[in-house]
Amino acid sequence: MRNILLKELKLSASFLSYLFILFGFMFFIPGYPILCGVFFVTLGIFQSFQTAREANDIVYSALLPIAKKDVVKGKYLFVCFIEAAALILMIIITIIRMTALADSPVYRANALMNANFFALGMAFFIFGLFNWIFVAGFFKTAYKFARPFVVYIIAAFATIAVAEALHHFPGFELLNAFGSEHIVLQLITLSTGIITYFLMTVFSYKVACKRFETIDL
Amino acid sequence: MSIVEVQNLVKKYPSFVLKNISFSVDKGKITGFIGRNGAGKTTTIKAMLNLIRPDSGTVRFFQKPLIGNETEIKKHIGYSTGTVNWYPRKKIKDIIDSEKRFYETWDNEAYRKYLDLFLLDEHKTPLELSEGMKVKFNLLLALSHRAEVLILDEPTSGLDPFSRDELLKIFSELKKDGVAVFFSTHIISDIEKCADDIVYISKGRLVSAASKADFIARFSANGETLEETMLRLERRDMHA
């Protein structure tokens, strides 16, 4: 498992996948739809799929002394690695905004979504969508990625729009909590996001393995 | 002793069918896999490497079926193709560093030996290599983990006559070490020079799988070269 991840990190990955982790810093930007940062991180991962295709990476990997499903595992490990790195950055920034910057006027006057545990839960959810729609979709052919990426873009931006607007609707105001306000609700939404991410990733991995076994390279 | 056995391999595509291909590859022998372009050589090789899923048939290496023993078997086989570029913009050294982690049998000494022999610069990228050097780079990957079977898809295509001759000599050296070499080609003179056995396919069906001597005895007319025999057989097939 370590070897295939190292191969993904050193040979298959595009530099942009690493660089775009920094879009996690968008969680600091006031008056901006911060969940777009999550999308940009996945855009960076998408670049690695492009680079890998140009380098015949999938066939190269399938020829290594590993089972065919380990080729899929390598891609998922890489994707989750980048997502985890971005999430760690987003978690740190969210905690700073929830503590030291909780009363900062620029954030208090923010019409858009506040960086709190609900936002983090939504970040997990969008990463889950990427794994479920794009990564599993790519393994239908291990070659074509335009369609799954377009479907993912639509799903991701629809999710971002709903998440950013939700607290303006009656009954959902609490989702825009500052600091430790309504902390139980915040933690429930975060936990839901994490569980959904986990389920979407595991489910899509199993689907991708099945698909990859049946395709001709 | 057979270390590769292909039995009744069938693969159906909308416009092409690979029909019941069966042959074996023996330890310490060079087997030439011949047939014109589009005969099904690459499809067969891909099925042997589990890159494509055959509709029926089995592939066995070292008396074990490939399916279910893929990881273990692939540690002992090497594959090379003259036409594919792996990671064209990565340095050879970086590709090697990543690849060798997968093989317990990786032999740094053999790697250095073939690197020098092939005059490859490990600081170059595959993109900077000529077609012939790309073949040698692929061979370097295959030879450095002491593979017992080499499966090579048109390794001599695109090589100049000198490099081809050099490569055929390497095959003969490997054969002495007990390595089985299975290589596809449409350059019949290469087969004439070094192959022990010949597997010949045409339009997706097996014409013959036999020793070179048996093949010549069965198909060659008096004084014909192997190439002339092949041409005659293909022409006959076209008009059939």
Task: Please describe what this structure looks like.
The complex is a heterodimer of chains A (217) and B (240). Chain A is 70% helix and 0% strand. Chain A is mostly helical. Chain A has one domain (2-214). The mean pLDDT of chain A is 95. Chain B has two domains: 2-76 and 148-239, 3-Layer(aba) Sandwich (Rossmann fold), CATH 3.40.50; 86-146, no CATH class. A six-stranded mixed sheet of chain B has the order 6-7-8-3-9-10, with helices on both faces. A four-stranded antiparallel sheet of chain B has the order 2-1-4-5, covered by helices on one side. Classes of the chains: A mainly alpha (217), B alpha/beta (240). Chains A and B meet through α1 and α4 of A and α2 and α3 of B.
Concise account of the structure shown:
Chain A is mainly α and 217 residues long. Chain A contains 9 helices and no strands. The radius of gyration of chain A is 18 Å and the shape is elongated.
Topology diagram in text:
The complex is a heterodimer of chains A (217) and B (240).
Chain A (H helix, E strand, L loop, with lengths): L1 H11 L2 H5 L16 H19 L2 H7 L4 H31 L6 H4 L8 H22 L7 H20 L17 H32 L3
Helix pairs in contact in A: 1-5, 3-5, 5-7, 5-9, 7-8, 7-9
Chain B lengths: L1 E12 L2 E11 L3 E5 L6 H8 L7 E6 L2 E2 L4 H5 L2 E5 L10 H8 L8 H10 L13 H13 L5 E5 L7 H16 L3 E6 L2 H7 L2 E6 L2 E7 H8 L6 H14 L1
Parallel strand pairs in B: 3-8, 3-9, 6-7, 7-8
Antiparallel strand pairs in B: 1-2, 1-4, 4-5, 9-10
